[in-house]
Design the sequence.
């Protein structure tokens, strides 16, 4: 499978280059599921938020950043129970920028007993979908890697009026324990820049979303050692931090300071690593802002259909 090059979009200097993020997740495809305990909790939390909203949803459903496809069967079950009348298009659209993740999603779709699905290898910043073609836009723990105004505008463009957006992303304070421990070592950036809730609300409003609902949750994993913390982040592809990151090895002395600082935060369960999850629900307004209505730079996505 080939994957189209990421199109040029509005610069986002606080985040790693999208090509680097895509490569990291491509490498993590085989190890992701075994290490993704928090990521799965976030999916379950977002599904609970969607169900609590009681908003009707329609197909097709776009899983934007589908990864290994964990959410796909859950979404299929949800739409079967809560969705409106089906259409002739595939019910599930699994989209990811990393080719290896797309392959994993394909395998999930191929095993699915649902009416059909399609996997698409493409960038969330330039969705290769027609305007108003999606009933539910779903994305779990992907937006933190992206430029929020751009992907919010893209989400609104592909949603039909009244369509539902359901997003779980990460806010400020995420990986705070790790950042605090690294602060005892040097002044480099060691965790990703995470958005403020207000910035996310503003991005949704500017894109033309209404009825915005926001909920927050703290999800915490525990590990036996600092090395296990870093290995877990690498296993899920979350080891890119963007500009300001350290390029030289820590060295023995730096590693010792890191371990000593993190050990001061140890609990009975182990070394904590917290994720500040922001759940966003919204509906697409009747009007699309002019800047959101124009298609982005065309791409030629790789798509696989499953009957």
Sequence:
């Amino acid at each position: 499978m080939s994957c189209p090059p990421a199109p040029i979009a509005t610069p986002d200097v606080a985040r790693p280059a999208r090509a680097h993020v895509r490569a990291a997740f491509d490498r993590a495809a085989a190890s992701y599921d075994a290490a993704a305990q928090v990521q799965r909790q976030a999916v379950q939390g977002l599904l609970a938020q969607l169900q609590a909203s009681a908003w009707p949803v329609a197909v097709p459903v776009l899983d934007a950043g589908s990864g290994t496809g964990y959410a796909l069967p859950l979404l299929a079950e949800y739409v079967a129970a809560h969705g409106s009348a089906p259409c002739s298009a595939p019910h599930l659209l699994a989209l990811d920028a990393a080719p290896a993740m797309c392959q994993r999603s394909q395998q999930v779709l191929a095993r699915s007993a649902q009416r059909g699905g399609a996997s698409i290898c493409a960038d969330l910043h330039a969705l290769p979908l027609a305007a108003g073609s999606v009933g539910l836009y779903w994305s779990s723990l992907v937006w933190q890697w992206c430029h929020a105004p751009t992907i919010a505008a893209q989400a609104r463009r592909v949603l039909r009026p009244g369509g539902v957006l359901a997003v779980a992303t990460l806010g400020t304070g995420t990986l705070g324990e790790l950042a605090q421990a690294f602060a005892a070592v040097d002044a480099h950036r060691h965790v990703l820049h995470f958005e403020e809730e207000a910035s996310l609300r503003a991005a949704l409003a500017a894109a033309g979303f209404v009825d915005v609902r926001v909920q927050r949750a703290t999800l915490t994993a525990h590990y036996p050692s600092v090395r296990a913390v870093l290995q877990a982040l690498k296993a899920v592809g979350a080891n890119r931090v963007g500009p300001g990151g350290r390029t030289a090895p820590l060295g023995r002395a730096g590693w010792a300071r890191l371990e000593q600082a993190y050990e001061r935060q140890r609990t009975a369960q182990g070394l904590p690593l917290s994720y500040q999850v922001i759940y966003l629900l919204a509906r697409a307004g009747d009007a699309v802002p002019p800047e959101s209505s124009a298609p982005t730079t065309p791409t030629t996505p790789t798509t696989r259909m499953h009957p």
Summary: The longest strand covers residues 209-223. The chain has a mean pLDDT of 83. The domain at 18-172+192-220+274-284 is CATH 3.40.50.150 (Rossmann fold).
